[in-house]
Amino acid sequence: MADKVYNFGAGPAMLPEPVMQKIQQEWLNFQGMGVSIIEISHRSKEFVAVLNEAQSLFRELTGLPDNYRILFVHGGARMQFSALPMNLAERVPSRKSLYVESGNFANLAAEEAKAFSHMEIIASSAATNFDRIPKITLEEINQDAAYLHITSNNTIYGTRWNQFPQTGDVPLIADMTSELLSRQIDYNQFGVVYAGLQKNLGPSGMAMVIIREDLLGHASRQTPTLLNYTQCDKDNSLTNTTNTFAIYVIKLVLEWLKEQGGVKAIEKLNKQKSARLYQVIDNTDFYHGIAQPEFRSIMNVSFKLATEELENKFLQAAGAIGLYALKGHRKVGGVRASIYNPMPMAGVEKLANFMTEFERQNR
């Protein structure tokens, strides 16, 4: 195994090395307290300061408007597949929720919503095996719906929404798990943005929910306390003992992102990283991209080789030189390079050069 390993895993994904070093330095003695961050009370002034600072940093980095609330919630993004319809469906008499099916997790979100709302899929790219984002017009969006849900970046297929749909009076909800903070967005376009931590924010198991204030207060009576966004907001995400370590890591990741120049600077770098890999793919018929070019993600680059045997050889050779976790998702196969914010350009260059050399040796 190579000394330097670059982790291209889709999630849990790599964290910035300075963040890992900071965690190591403070592990046994957080802020001179003589105890670890995982040992102090979630209601202590020291931890509440960490939580509040994470919220402040996120607002600063994103320009989040004042009428949006930031929640740290349990269960990752998939728990929100249930929590969203529980919290939003009853804000309108129809209890209707609209979904765009653009990949595996979009489909899972829609299926979960069936139990808590009158779910309707209004657009899908399933017919082309999710190689693109389906088209949707304002006229197709029923204005009596509680919300419209999209998955802004599709980790498995390597597609993303480059332009978000106009939804009229219907709040737009976006699962941004695999791309939050990777590009600048106008949060005013959304009623809710949510993301699991394990791509660009921190360890797995929790999620961030960014919700417009007017969408609070509509939870159904059957909504469990820990899934009730209004209660979570009222308690500043401390309704019960939260994952203090995860929120601490979020703060460190946001500090690191600020040091890199913020979201604008990281978006520029992310575009350069993905362009380097797509350049290799497009300049040959040896590799075949899964996503249609106009819908390509800058976070997840998915491609195939001519045979499964050749793909396995590629993955084995890549792993031997420190290019880790490149195997594609079981639903698609092939190769997937997840190049989230912490992935340095050096890792992408090593992969790109390996791809060129592997083609030369195996064509």
UniProtKB/TrEMBL annotation:
<feature type="binding site">
    <location>
        <position position="155"/>
    </location>
    <ligand>
        <name>pyridoxal 5'-phosphate</name>
    </ligand>
</feature>
<feature type="domain" description="Aminotransferase class V">
    <location>
        <begin position="5"/>
        <end position="351"/>
    </location>
</feature>
<keyword id="KW-0718">Serine biosynthesis</keyword>
<keyword id="KW-0028">Amino-acid biosynthesis</keyword>
<dbReference type="InterPro" id="IPR015421">
    <property type="entry name" value="PyrdxlP-dep_Trfase_major"/>
</dbReference>
<comment type="function">
    <text>Catalyzes the reversible conversion of 3-phosphohydroxypyruvate to phosphoserine and of 3-hydroxy-2-oxo-4-phosphonooxybutanoate to phosphohydroxythreonine.</text>
</comment>
<comment type="pathway">
    <text>Amino-acid biosynthesis; L-serine biosynthesis; L-serine from 3-phospho-D-glycerate: step 2/3.</text>
</comment>
<dbReference type="Pfam" id="PF00266">
    <property type="entry name" value="Aminotran_5"/>
</dbReference>
<comment type="subunit">
    <text>Homodimer.</text>
</comment>
<comment type="pathway">
    <text>Cofactor biosynthesis; pyridoxine 5'-phosphate biosynthesis; pyridoxine 5'-phosphate from D-erythrose 4-phosphate: step 3/5.</text>
</comment>
<dbReference type="InterPro" id="IPR000192">
    <property type="entry name" value="Aminotrans_V_dom"/>
</dbReference>
<dbReference type="GO" id="GO:0008615">
    <property type="term" value="P:pyridoxine biosynthetic process"/>
</dbReference>
<feature type="binding site">
    <location>
        <position position="175"/>
    </location>
    <ligand>
        <name>pyridoxal 5'-phosphate</name>
    </ligand>
</feature>
<comment type="similarity">
    <text>Belongs to the class-V pyridoxal-phosphate-dependent aminotransferase family. SerC subfamily.</text>
</comment>
<dbReference type="InterPro" id="IPR015422">
    <property type="entry name" value="PyrdxlP-dep_Trfase_small"/>
</dbReference>
<dbReference type="GO" id="GO:0005737">
    <property type="term" value="C:cytoplasm"/>
</dbReference>
<dbReference type="InterPro" id="IPR015424">
    <property type="entry name" value="PyrdxlP-dep_Trfase"/>
</dbReference>
<feature type="binding site">
    <location>
        <begin position="240"/>
        <end position="241"/>
    </location>
    <ligand>
        <name>pyridoxal 5'-phosphate</name>
    </ligand>
</feature>
<feature type="binding site">
    <location>
        <begin position="77"/>
        <end position="78"/>
    </location>
    <ligand>
        <name>pyridoxal 5'-phosphate</name>
    </ligand>
</feature>
<feature type="binding site">
    <location>
        <position position="105"/>
    </location>
    <ligand>
        <name>pyridoxal 5'-phosphate</name>
    </ligand>
</feature>
<keyword id="KW-0663">Pyridoxal phosphate</keyword>
<dbReference type="GO" id="GO:0006564">
    <property type="term" value="P:L-serine biosynthetic process"/>
</dbReference>
<dbReference type="InterPro" id="IPR022278">
    <property type="entry name" value="Pser_aminoTfrase"/>
</dbReference>
<feature type="binding site">
    <location>
        <position position="198"/>
    </location>
    <ligand>
        <name>pyridoxal 5'-phosphate</name>
    </ligand>
</feature>
<keyword id="KW-0808">Transferase</keyword>
<keyword id="KW-0032">Aminotransferase</keyword>
<protein>
    <recommendedName>
        <fullName>Phosphoserine aminotransferase</fullName>
        <ecNumber>2.6.1.52</ecNumber>
    </recommendedName>
</protein>
<dbReference type="GO" id="GO:0004648">
    <property type="term" value="F:O-phospho-L-serine:2-oxoglutarate aminotransferase activity"/>
</dbReference>
<keyword id="KW-0963">Cytoplasm</keyword>
<dbReference type="GO" id="GO:0030170">
    <property type="term" value="F:pyridoxal phosphate binding"/>
</dbReference>
<feature type="binding site">
    <location>
        <position position="43"/>
    </location>
    <ligand>
        <name>L-glutamate</name>
    </ligand>
</feature>
<keyword id="KW-0664">Pyridoxine biosynthesis</keyword>
<feature type="modified residue" description="N6-(pyridoxal phosphate)lysine">
    <location>
        <position position="199"/>
    </location>
</feature>
